[in-house]
Amino acid sequence: MSTANTISISSPADFHVHLRQGDLSELVTPHVREGGFRLAYVMPNLIPPITTTVQALEYKSMLERIDPKTEFLMTLYLSPNLTPDEIRKAKRAGIVGVKSYPRGVTTNSDGGIESYEAYYPIFEAMQEVDMVLNLHGEVPSDASANIHENPCSLSPLRIVLEHATTRVAVETVKSLGSTVACTITAHHLALTVDDWAGQSWNYCKPVAKFPDDREALHEVIREGHPRFFLGSDSAPHPSIKKSTSSPEHGCAAGIYTSPILLALTTHLLESFGALDKLEGFVSKNGRAFYKKEVTADDAMVLLRRRNSNTNTSKRYSYSWKGQEVIPFWSGVDLEWEIID
Amino acid sequence: MSTANTISISSPADFHVHLRQGDLSELVTPHVREGGFRLAYVMPNLIPPITTTVQALEYKSMLERIDPKTEFLMTLYLSPNLTPDEIRKAKRAGIVGVKSYPRGVTTNSDGGIESYEAYYPIFEAMQEVDMVLNLHGEVPSDASANIHENPCSLSPLRIVLEHATTRVAVETVKSLGSTVACTITAHHLALTVDDWAGQSWNYCKPVAKFPDDREALHEVIREGHPRFFLGSDSAPHPSIKKSTSSPEHGCAAGIYTSPILLALTTHLLESFGALDKLEGFVSKNGRAFYKKEVTADDAMVLLRRRNSNTNTSKRYSYSWKGQEVIPFWSGVDLEWEIID
Q1: What is the three-state SS of B56-102?
Q2: Are B330 and B317 in contact (CB under 8 A)?
Q3: pLDDT tens digits for A212-256?
Q4: How many domains does chain A have?
Q5: What domain range includes position B228?
Q6: Which of A290, B77, B152, B291 could form a cystine bridge with B49, CB 3.0-4.6 A?
Q7: CA A202, A204, A207 angle in degrees (round to 5)?
Q8: Best mutation site among A200, A240, A248 for testing chain B: the one with the most B CBs within 10 Å?
Q9: What is the pTM for the complete model shown?
Q10: Where residue A229 sits, what CATH number does that domain have?
C-alpha cells in the first residue's frame, strides 16, 4: 500500500545480518529495529563460529536481552563438526538455517569449507527437517582459473544464494526452481566497482560489480520476482578498521546499513522505479520462502517522505564503550524516513 | 647479457614517472637513480599543470638541481592553452612529448580533456616536429555506457598508450603500426583486482585488472615485442594519504616503485620467464621508440641475485621534512639487487 508521501510495510524482515559479539553487539543489535526491521536472520560467523545448537541458543538469548522486541532467527555455521543428529536437534530448537562459507572470503570465515561432498549427509538431514542452506555467493579467487565471483548451486535442498551481485547470479537463480531463492543487499543496489575503488568505506565482500550487474539487480526487483528479497548483509566494523590500511593489512570488508535500512531501501527502490515492489522485497517474499508469518503485534512500519528543508548532509556515527560505527551513506539525506 | 647470478643492463630508462613538487619532489627525485634508472620521462600533472615550455624548463632545472646525474625528459600537459607555435618552441627546447589526460581520472587531472577534435592543429604540429603524444589509457567511467577502461587510438602521430592494463589494450597496440607504442608498469605485472580490493596501498589508476589481463602483459613482454616497454607510473603520495579513507574522501591513487624499480622489474620478469627480455623492456625498446640513445658515461647498471640469508621482510620507508613515502612491496625481499 502506498500513497504519494507515506508507505506502510508489514513487518520488514532482514534475512541476512551480522550482529557481532561483546560491546559491538550491544551497540548494533538495537539498530535492526531502529532501522525499521522486526526480524533479523542472524549470521553465525563469530569467534568461535556458531556450530552447535547450544551456542546458537546462548547467542540468541544474549541478543534478546539486548533487544527483546526483535525476532531473531538463528543459523549454524557449516563445518566438519556438524552431524545429522545436531541438525535435527537444531531444528527442534527453532534454528532455521545453516550457513556455508567458502574458506577465507569474509570476516571470520577461516573455518569455511572447500568441498561440499563431505556434507551430503548433513544436507540430507536438513532437507528432511526442512532447514535452509545459506550459500555465501562467492568463491575464493583462483588466478589460474580466472575465478572471482561465482554462484554455487545444489539441489533439491532449499537454498538461499546470499548477496547476489552479478547478472549471472540473478539469471542462474531465476532459472532454478522454487526451492532456490536469493538475497540482495541494499548497498549493492547503489554501488559499482568505481565506488569502492580507493574508498574503503564502500568496500565489502562480495564486492560491488559493474553497472550492468547492478542493473540486473534492479530489474529483478522491479519485476517483483518472488524468490528475491532483502538480506542486508549489514556488517559493522569499528570505524578505525574501515578507515585505515597498512601495507601489511588492508581495511575491513563490510558495509553497515542496519540503522537506516528500511529508509535506504525505500530510497533506492524509488530511484529505479520499484517503489511498488518494496513490501514484497523487504517483507513478503522472504517471509514466504522462510515460512515466517508475521506474528508481532506492532507489525506495521510506516514511512513518510522527508521534508527536504530538514536536509543537513551531516555525517553521523554511533558510539558505545569505545566502539564507534559509521553507517553507509552517513551524511546523505534520504528521501524517506520511518515514522515512530 | 646475463649469467646465472648477475645481469648488466645498458642505461635503464623509465618512460613514465611522477616527480611531484616541493619537499616531496626533493625526497623522491633521487630515487629514480637509486632504483637503477638513468633516464626519467617526467609527467606534467603538477599544480598548476606544466602547459608551457617555460614552465617545463623551470621544472627541469629544479629536478636537475636535486639530481644532476639523471637525464630528465620533459612533457607538456595537453590543454586548450597549447598552440602549434608553443609546440614548435617546446621541441626546440628539447621537450619530448605531450601528455593527454582524460578529465578527472588521475592525480591533478582536473584540467584534462574530453574531446580530441579541438586538438587536431596541435597534433599536426607535433607530427611535424616529431613529438610524441602520451595517452593516459583510461576513460572516465560512464555507467550508462558500461565504460570502465578503454584504450584510445589516433594516427598517424607517434603515440604511446600509457600503462596498459588489459588484454584488449595489448592486442590493440599490437595490431597497430610502428608509430604506436605502449608502456607497462612494474606493479601491473604483479597485481590483480584482488590485491587492491580493500587494500589502499595497492590501489592505483588505472586499477589492476583480472588474471587473464595480467597474463597478456606477461605474454607481450615474454615475446619481446619491441613496442612495449617500461613506464613505471611511479606515483608517490604521503603515506597518510595512502593509508586512510574517510566516508567523504577515499585514499590517494598511486603506487610508488622508483626506489626499487629495476630490482622489482627484474624479480617480476624472472617470475614469469622473461628475464632474457629485461634489457629490451627496461631500456632498448623505449629508447628506440623515443630515439634516445644511451649517452651517459656510467651507462651500465649491474644487478646480482640477492643472498636470501639477508632476507628481513622488514617494512621500510623514506622521510624528508615531514614527508613520508612507503614504496610498493616494502617488506618483501626481492630476488635481485643493484650492485653500487
Answers
A1: HHHHHHHHHHHCCCCEEECEEECCCCCCHHHHHHHHHCCCCEEEECE
A2: yes
A3: 999 999 999 999 999 999 999 999 999 999 999 999 999 999 999
A4: 1
A5: 6-338
A6: B77
A7: 95
A8: A200
A9: 0.85
A10: 3.20.20.140
